[in-house]
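in:
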């Protein structure tokens, strides 16, 4: 005959009296990676939009990327409309790279409440 002993009841913690109830304001939404824009594609799009030859656009895009990289690595905060405001919040040294965690604030399509340029008077 086997004897059964009751298991010790697990102590459950209850919130203290008067403590506010916890509520979830907004559930976390997963971030799904979108398509990748490679430098070659960036140069081609810049050439099309600016009516420059691909070689000229390549020089301009590469120079701009160099300046942006230098600024971020030096800890500078970038303000580059229409992309927005870019700030380095964390830097981690790895074996073969420096890993930057950045915060990018992109303005709403409405322009952040600013009035558009005034239209010409008749």
């Amino acid at each position: 005959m086997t004897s059964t002993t009751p298991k010790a009841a697990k102590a459950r913690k209850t919130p203290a009296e008067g403590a506010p109830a916890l509520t979830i304001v907004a559930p976390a939404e997963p971030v799904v990676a979108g398509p990748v824009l490679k430098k070659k594609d960036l140069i081609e799009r810049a050439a099309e939009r600016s009516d420059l030859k691909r070689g000229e656009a390549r020089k301009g895009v590469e120079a701009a990327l160099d300046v942006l990289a230098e600024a971020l690595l030096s800890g500078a905060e970038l303000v580059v409309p229409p992309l927005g405001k870019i700030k380095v919040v964390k830097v981690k040294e790895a074996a073969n790279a420096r890993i930057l965690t950045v915060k990018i604030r992109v303005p709403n399509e409405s322009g952040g409440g600013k009035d558009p340029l005034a239209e010409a008077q008749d």
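note: Helices lie at 39-50, 54-73.
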